[in-house]
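Support request from a user on the community tier.

User writes: "When I paste my structure tokens into the form, the page sometimes reloads and wipes my input. The last time it worked, I copied everything first. Here is what I submitted, just in case something in the input itself triggers the reload:"
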């Protein structure tokens, strides 16, 4: 289970909005000066909010631990990132083998495969949107303070928050 600490910032019926602080290992990385991840985290901040089922009865202000199973994260990553790339290669190979071996047509076949892969990833994402196996879960209340906590009114969350 991949776990992250956060703080409950809003509760509505059976759901809770949890603000987490993205942890960064930039200070110990040798490539920190040329890394895009460091620049993104500085530009867009590190606080963001997620909506989870409030299975433990958390209240606003509670420090909690949220998690997602490793297998779910791996499966979703493969489906959303690897599948479009494989379909792009498949499209290019099929165009070369059974279509035209001219470079322009092979490129077009690869692009068509990539577009088909993106459409498939969108379908996968929409089909499993409400599947609890792919949703973060509220695991328990945290015994320690959340490191790097910034109050909600000072943070810049990346989502619109509770509706």
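"...and here is what came back when it finally went through:"
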């Amino acid at each position: 289970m991949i776990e992250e600490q956060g703080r409950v910032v809003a509760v509505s019926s059976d759901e809770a909005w949890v603000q987490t602080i993205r942890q960064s290992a930039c200070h110990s990385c040798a490539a920190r000066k040329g890394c895009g991840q460091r620049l993104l985290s500085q530009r867009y901040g590190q606080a963001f909010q997620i909506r989870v089922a409030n299975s433990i009865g958390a209240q606003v202000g509670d420090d909690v631990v949220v998690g997602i199973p490793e297998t779910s994260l791996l499966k979703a990553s493969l489906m959303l990132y690897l599948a479009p790339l494989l379909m792009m290669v498949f499209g290019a190979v099929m165009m070369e083998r059974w279509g035209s071996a001219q470079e322009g047509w092979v490129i077009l076949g690869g692009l068509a495969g990539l577009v088909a892969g993106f459409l498939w990833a969108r379908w996968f994402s929409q089909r499993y949107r409400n599947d609890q196996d792919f949703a973060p879960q509220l695991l328990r209340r945290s015994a320690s303070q959340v490191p790097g906590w910034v109050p909600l009114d000072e943070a810049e969350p990346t989502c619109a928050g509770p509706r």
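Agent notes: The reload is a front-end session timeout and is unrelated to the input. DSSP finds three helices and five strands in the chain. The radius of gyration is 21 Å. Escalated to web team.
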